[in-house]
User: Which sequence fits this backbone?
């Protein structure tokens, strides 16, 4: 019952976005990594200034290009990216993942750095996309009014908000709030093996699990990760077995079984082939090292 209540209390993506907007005062939006479309935002409407700029085809093109460049940068680095758009406004983008798959971007904007950028500078940039010849005094007043609506913050305040957005993006990733809609077979298989390596796994069982042919899954996995499914699973299990051997209360056969090896002799052969020593020799080495540090670790040369 407590677990069910805790699950119900976990915030949704929409709630996270609303709270982040309430704290920062900036527009917060979530984009799909697959096609770059906006999934949800708070507030839903873009700022009046952005809307005015995007009435001009060139202004719209520049806005979309800024978004694409930001997405590419985040995809390449896997990190939050803070930048100034063509209108002189600060924006930021953070990656969202489902396992090791990039699923989306959390974006924050738009704001003026009150210490380095004036509203007059933003106004001049915005005027590039307005037909000056047809602008009336009333139009000029309206443009100045919507520029004045853009929030201004000190650079340190902007960075604090970006850090808060990064924390929220991390939570969304860890809680798997925004899962992949079209994860590839290779990525699906890798994620499954990472979670279920201790169970019986074969190429055939993976094909049944993800409804793909042997050729498709095997080819996709090798193309994506550079090794075969068998090689990846073996390496995963050996690393886990190696870690378990450091628990001295556990027998070699128990470590082998928990790591996914049903035959302790096979585990020993595979372990020796990979690490040039038997599981027992590895365990003795780690135990001797631990004892040495306990007995002599306090001595300095």
Assistant:
């Amino acid at each position: 019952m407590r677990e069910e209540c805790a699950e119900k209390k976990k915030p949704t993506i929409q709630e996270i976005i609303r709270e982040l907007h309430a704290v920062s005062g900036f527009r917060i939006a979530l984009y799909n990594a697959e096609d770059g479309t906006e999934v949800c935002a708070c507030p839903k409407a873009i700022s009046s200034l952005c809307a005015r700029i995007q009435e001009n085809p060139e202004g719209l093109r520049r806005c979309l290009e800024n978004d694409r460049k930001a997405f590419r940068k985040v995809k390449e680095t896997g990190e939050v990216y803070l930048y100034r758009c063509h209108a002189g406004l600060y924006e930021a983008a953070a990656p969202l993942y489902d396992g090791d798959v990039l699923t989306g971007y959390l974006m924050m904007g738009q704001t003026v750095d009150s210490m380095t950028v004036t509203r007059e500078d933003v106004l001049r940039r915005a005027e590039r996309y307005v037909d000056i010849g047809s602008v009336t005094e009333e139009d000029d007043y309206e443009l100045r009014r919507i520029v004045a609506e853009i929030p201004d913050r000190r650079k340190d305040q902007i960075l604090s908000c970006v850090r808060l957005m990064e924390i929220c993006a991390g939570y969304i990733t860890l809680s798997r709030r925004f899962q992949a809609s079209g994860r590839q077979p290779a990525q699906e298989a890798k994620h499954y093996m990472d979670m279920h390596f201790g169970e019986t796994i074969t190429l055939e069982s993976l094909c049944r699990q993800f409804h793909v042919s042997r050729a498709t899954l095997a080819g996709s996995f090798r193309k994506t990760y550079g090794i075969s499914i068998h090689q990846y699973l073996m390496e995963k299990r050996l690393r886990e077995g190696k870690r378990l051997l450091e628990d001295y209360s556990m027998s070699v056969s128990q470590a082998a079984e928990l790591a996914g090896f049903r035959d302790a002799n096979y585990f020993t052969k595979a372990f020796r082939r990979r690490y040039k020593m038997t599981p027992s020799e590895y365990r003795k080495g780690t135990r001797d090292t631990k004892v040495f540090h306990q007995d002599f670790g306090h001595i300095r040369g």
Notes: Residues 2-174 form a domain with the Beta-Lactamase fold (CATH 3.30.450). Strands lie at 27-32, 38-42, 81-84, 90-98, 101-113, 152-153. The first helix runs from residue 2 to 9.
